[in-house]
Amino acid sequence: MPAKVVFDNVSCVFQHRSGQLVQALRDVSFEAPEGQFICVVGRSGHGKTTLLRVLAGLQQPTGGSVAVGDRHVTRPGRDRAMVFQQDTVFPWMHVRDNVEFGLAAAGLSKSERRRISDRRLSEVGLDEFAQSWPRELSGGMRKRVALAAVLAVDADVWLMDEPFGSLDYFTRRQLHDLLIELWEEANKTVFFVTHDIEEALILADRVLLVSEGRIVDDLPVALPRPRDEDVRASAEAVGLTKRILSHLGVQTTHAAPSRLAAQG
Amino acid sequence: MSGVIRTISRHPAALLTWVVILVGWEIAAHLVPESPREGSPIVPSWEFVFTESFKDLSGNWTKPYWAPAPIRGGEETYLGALLALGYHSLSTLTRLLLGLGIGVAAGVGTGLLISYWATARRLAWPSLNFLRMVPLLAAIPLFQFWLGANSRGTTTFIAFGVWVVLVVGTLNAVANVPDRYLESARTLGASRVRTYLRVVVPGAMPELRTSLLLAAGLSWSLTVGAEYIGLRDGLGSIMAVAEYTTNTGRMIIIAICVGVFALLTFALLDRLFGRVVSWMPKVDDGGLTQVAGAGAIGAGKAVGGAAT
Fold this sequence. Notes:
Number of strands of chain A: 10
Helix content of chain B: over 70%
Radius of gyration of chain B: 25 Å
Largest sheet of chain B: none
Number of strands of chain B: 0
Shape of chain A: globular
Oligomer: heterodimer
Strand content of chain A: 15-25%
Number of helices of chain A: 9
Order of helices and strands of chain A: EEEHEEEHHHEHEHEEHHH
CATH class of the largest domain in chain B: Mainly Alpha
């Protein structure tokens, strides 16, 4: 079941080695209904990843609270699964064992694990690579393995921290299509962190714009799907892009839409 | 050893280095002044090493069978030299492999146990780090005083030295497992024990492999050192007698023997541990091996299965 996510006045303060305090999140409050695809957009170092890590339970907030469904988030749980920016596929496990890792942790039998991993590997197009080592796969394929592992545990909320940031443009676009297909089928709540505005407009139902630890804008993205080049060049998409860029302090008056997107 | 052979087969020019060393040595043997002690050249020629010096080793064969024992009035023979070298090599290898095996098992085991508990790690780290800094060879007399100048004492000493290196090596290897793997395991619902056993331990293996090879090198120093100082058999003890009699040729033979055995130990460990870390990325091959002599292949085949 997808789950509603509630952030209530969440703050997060870090202390730098020099003693200086850094406020990564400031009184962040919002609600995310079940099944929504939310992109968290902002500049680097403005709190996007902290927001996601607090929701994952990897980081404790210094103030406020986070709830998923009727449960308060205090640590990682099976209701939330995360795809990281860096490569987190375990290189010492075959692809299938990676996908089954969360299932084994949940105590599922071998046959049940096998059934689920077969299905998830097929969904991400890696059924022929079940017995491969991660080192034998490309970066894009390893991201598919990470996606399959998240799909396998059937978490209510998918957390994605710039998962495709290190991939080339074409691979990224392929993975966008795959992710949307999987999300539409599973109907999960998704939090997707990115600094790429084009990526956000391709994926999101809603964009949370983060700047200096605050949510400075909350934009619904009502563009029709699939969001091909024509959709992304529409007046509505360009308007959204300009609005996001203005929050990020980028002057947009004379820039062409495609260039605007690329600046993300 | 296999590494040496592999290097030479890939780069035959590497042989040249060996030729230069051997020829250079031979030239030096003829250029340096003669030693005042007859039969003890300062730099022995290869001919001297492999004839007189080698045959002289039969003096270390003391058994009353298989070959004459000079200590019992028998003559020096090549068979006696070979038997002596084999017997003392076996003594050394037995001590080394026992000490190394015990030290590896105890060192990795202790390191993994301490690593699991943060408090134990914090408590143990300063003293272990201090122990690592102590020059182990200087502790040989102390160990021999406590445990006896015998095989048991030497094996215990080797095991202790390897243990120290591997506890510290294991602690470092565990600490250097990237956090991202631990966090990924936690978000997939893994317990602490499962994360440790299925993520931390295998993740530490590549660095542990390096520590293991370092410990193997150290174990040779410790073994030969302990035998040199206090034992009556083993390659180190032959070296001690060679020093006493300024028998340079014999020193060279023992050095070559130890070098060959150490390379074999390295190759064996590397091969055994190589299986444990067979998952490690090779030198950026991307999982592909170039097909020698292949021309163009069909586009369908070329991209088959590459689901990126």
